Amino acid sequence: CAAELPHGPMVAARTGDVVLENHVARFVVRVGHHGHAIAGLSGGHVVDAVRIGPSGAQVGSDALREWVISADFHTILPDSVDFEVDSDGGEARVVVRGALVPFPTLHAYFQPDMPLAQVEHVYALRPDEAVLELRTTVSPSGGKALSALIGDVTLWAGSLGLYLPGIGGGELPLSAKASHVGFAPIVGADDTPAVALGFGAMLSVLNAQGIVAFLQPADPIPAIGRTFVRHLAIGGAARDDLAAAMAAATGAAVAKVRVDGQVDNFWPGVEVEVYDVDGAPLTRCRPAADGAFSCEVPATCTAARVVWLGVGLGDAAGLVEAAGGPIEPLVFADSERASVQLHAPAIARVTATVEGGQGEPLAFRLTAWPAAVPLLGQRMFVSTTGAGTFVLPAGQWDLWLHHGPEYSEHAAHVALAPGQELALSATLEPVVDSVGWVACDLHVHAEHSADSFVPNGRRLQGAVAEGLDYVVATDHDFVTDYQPWLAAAGLTERLTVRSGAEVSTAQLGHFCVWPLVADANASGNGSPAWYGKEPLELLALLRGDGTKRVVQCNHPRGSQSYFNGIGLVAAEVDPELVSFDAMELLNGKRLGDTDEVMADWRGLLARGLRVTATGTSDSHTVENFVGNARTYVWLGSAATGPRDRQGAFAGADVEAAIRAGRAFATTGPLLTLEVIAAGGATAHIGDTLAAGKAAVVVRAVVEAPAWIALGTVELATEGTILVAQHVADTAVVDGRRQAVVEAILPAGQTDTWVHAVHRPGTGSSSPGLARESWAVTNPVFIDRDGDGRWR
Question: How far from the centroid of its chain's Cα atoms is residue 694's Cα?
Fold first, then answer.
């Protein structure tokens, strides 16, 4: 019932699911035919795992998205769910039985035969333990032995990262072997309990961009069946750190000792990592607020050191070792206990305060590069309040403050001493005129995508810091509703968000579609189920039934692309096969494909097909920041005036403007276009100009703050470059470069179109851009025959 559901923004439980709990832990098993984390996934799996405190209330957050059991890329379709409780109080069980069905997203890639078997999952919980035991029995059908690859596929929130004993939690391999693993907070200030999985035997661990699979040895399953046993521990008996979780998950199967001690100069984000005789990391434990620690760790440990996980203030995710934390040997006074004194190196703190042009607090991004080795150890922080204190190791740093490509930047070189607290203040001026334009990122990933570990709240803070107005959640095959995180961050009045999904097919590329409505009763939260669809069926599915969605073809060329999937030749393609609203012309991860994609787009325009060109970040990480490529959408008009501020426009207004082509794509420069007829009539991006047969004037304006390098502006029409003008040497006036480029489109007999392109030059931009400075407008259409339309 509702009172028994775990709480928190990542929780998937619904009323009617099965709760299995004791006084220290609560687990939820999804009931019904539909799973949760990926579109098309069947039910019967664990979707939530939380700790319960002494008062009976939930402690910390849920980070489990779903733990899926697979047999040759097939999962169970539940036929029954039963409940069992031992009369002596030994354990309680939820028993799920059913046949196998395809795991759609994996099955589409590998297309294996279906194993002929029945499957039973037993989820068992004992009193006083925060450990769930999973016993999966695979019983071959027909009384014959079976060969099938049995494995667990786990999906976790961005707050937890994989930790492999012997390797640690940094740069992890694609595959490894382990008898147990952990999932630990990636920043030290996180309240999410660490979890661990114990297998009782060495399994193959596959780390495929966030989808972590654990595969059993490929031994035949006898005719009488085989049971596979695993354990999921949320923290331990008394602690919720990684060491406690690993100790609980492995039980007596791994010999353990206790290491205790004190970390001098302790500060938040510091943990203690222990190592074996070869220097391989084994686990981590978290000291108390006074730096004291006492942890149960593998008996093979021989040394310990202090490590830094960051402090959760927006620094780039991932384990970062604090400079100068020496490895200290462990000396065991007896066979079971050792004590050690550790020292956390003094760090420096930078307190940044940023104002806008009117003295108002301004959200910002702080980019920090070590001066000795730029990009190595790069960190990015954000603040939505205009102020923040950020932790950096002592040393020489280059710092930049930014608020997107419409504002000036502030740069500083600092030498930070251990323990220093540096005050950094700056004013960022709006130097580019964007009145009437809404800054949008239409392709964004966060923790509901298996290949992204950016927490949703951090993603939205980053969007505000980059000066974005409108962001679409487009996680892979999952509909994310950003509203709870937006409200929690206090940003509801500062950013418009829409729910969508990146429909990520195996053979037909990827598409963003929005707005969608999150549906907790459907797998993938209601994301369109693409598997098994032919191109026309897929496009019909994405467009929906009478809904005003935007369907955008993502990264149309290269790997995972629709155009390659259908073998597109623009001059010959069936218009129905390209009946989407928009296509990514600038993708922040694939700018090298821009010329090829632009040629495709121009080919579609030449066919009379109107498809809006967009720019998107396709951001999956903190470093590849949201908005690094974006779309500016025009919402100003003579009748209403500019409507580009929060509260003055609705999401539907932006989507209508995108479908109408009133937009330009950019990685930084603002690029506008107008066409002027002989009588003075003027049309702008997305408009159709009744120009008659006469020549017209085509005028583009490119603007950029001084820190963005300019290159060349082209004015183009069908198959023709009207002019290509070098603008890199444009003088800086009032903090910006502005260049006007004009050309004459000669008189003509047939309808045509013109658009503008800014191509990057050889100059370099600051880390505020971190990309080549592209910009592409959508066309102005020219009506020559006076019929009031373009073609």
Answer: 50
Of the candidate ranges 30-34, 390-394, 428-432, 618-622, the one whose mean pLDDT is the lowest: 390-394
| Phi/psi at 653 (5° precision) | -65, -45
Beta bridge partners of 68: 153
Cα 150 to Cα 147, 182, 204, 364, distances in angstroms: 9, 20, 11, 48
**pLDDT at 209 exceeding the cut of 90:** no
DSSP letter for 87, please: T
pTM exceeds 0.85 for this model: yes
* Lateral strand order in the sheet of 410-416: 379-383, 364-370, 395-402, 410-416
pLDDT digits (tens, 9 = 90+) for 697-715: 999 999 999 999 999 999 9
Closest among 759, 466, 422, 387 to 626, alpha carbons compared: 466
Residue 290 burial class via C-beta count within 10 angstroms: exposed 0-12, middle 13-18, buried 19 and up: exposed
**Per-residue DSSP letter, 44:** -
Written as six digits, the tokens of 777 are 């407008």
Angle, vertex CA 74, rays to CA 70 and CA 79, nearest 5:
95
Nearest Cα neighbor of 407 from 440, 381, 444, 433 is: 433
Which residues are registered as beta bridge partners of 737? 704, 732
Residue whose token pair is 């040393």: 395
Can you tell me the distance from the alpha carbon of 458 to that of 383, in angstroms, rounded to the nearest whole number? 10
CB 651 within 8 A of CB 496: yes
Report how far residue 250's alpha carbon sits from residue 788's, in angstroms, rounded to the nearest whole number. 74
Residue 325 in this model has a pLDDT that exceeds 70:
no
Write the DSSP assignment of 537-550 as a string of letters.
HHHHHHH-SS---E
Q: At residue 174, does pLDDT exceed 50?
A: yes
Res 464: pLDDT: 97
Work out the average pLDDT over 46-73. Answer: 92
**C-alpha to C-alpha distances, 10 to 453, 454, 455, 480, 574, nearest whole angstrom:** 13, 13, 10, 10, 42
Contact in structure between 772 and 591 (CB atoms under 8 Å): yes
Q: Hey, is 259 helix, strand or coil? A: strand
Joined tokens for residue 442? 């239409």
Question: Which residue in 277, 266, 337 sits closest to 308, CA to CA?
Answer: 266
Element (H, E) at 573: none
Q: Which helix (H) or strand (E) holds 487?
A: helix 483-488
Q: Which long-range contacts (CB under 8 A, 24 or more apart) does 568-571 make?
A: 568/600, 570/599, 570/600, 570/602, 570/603, 570/604, 570/606, 570/607, 571/603, 571/606, 571/607
Write the single-letter amino acid at 667: T
User: What stretch of H or E contains 105?
Assistant: helix 104-110
Helix, strand, or coil here: 463? helix
